[in-house]
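Entry for the shared binder. Reason: the reviewer on the internal report wants the predicted structure included alongside the sequence.
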Amino acid sequence: MSQTSRAAATVLTGVALAATLAACGQSESVDPQTQRALDSALTDGDFPGGYSVVKLGKDDESAISEQFDESRKDATVSPAACKSDADAPDVAKTGRVVASSGPSTLSESVAVSSVDDATLVAAVTGECARVRVEVTTGAASGTTVDITHADVTTPTVDGHRGVVFRQMSTVPDKGRREIVIGRVPVDGYLVTVQAVNADGSPPNRAAFDATLAAAVRKVAETG
């Protein structure tokens, strides 16, 4: 698998699983806001040493959105209250970047959103701390995914409070995958950073923490 394909597959996994949760809310963009989101995406020099930005082609971007919709559409989520009805973020209106270092991948997105930190916390705690998703349409039809959220914290990053947690997903016959996810509202935008290792080992937490701090700072400074 090429570096680009591996990175795209990593984003697909994170988006497809996170999409089942009532987390981000729907965003409504206007041109100046959209431009700020696009300008706020991290670049090569913003990532920790050893990480390089992976260029995703149009086919990769389309696949991400299609996989999001296929995995979400008509899926059965238990508890039902943990299912999100949000559509995939509009690629043209979302700042998005993926960087990799060997098997380690970091991804970031910035989108206009009115979601608050309390909503983000509620989406991964309480009855939504453990979720079962049964996919009923698309290429993954028939797949059952068990998702657990653990080590949920509510850090304040450069004055902005968000949520950071580990998301463990288990798929029969495909093993277990761990993703570290951070979501921080910043001045009317939602900053999301994910870290995952393609080989199934725990993500690089130091690299994740540095990337989340850089992402939040860049959105605030771009304004």
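Summary line for the report: The longest strand covers residues 175-186.
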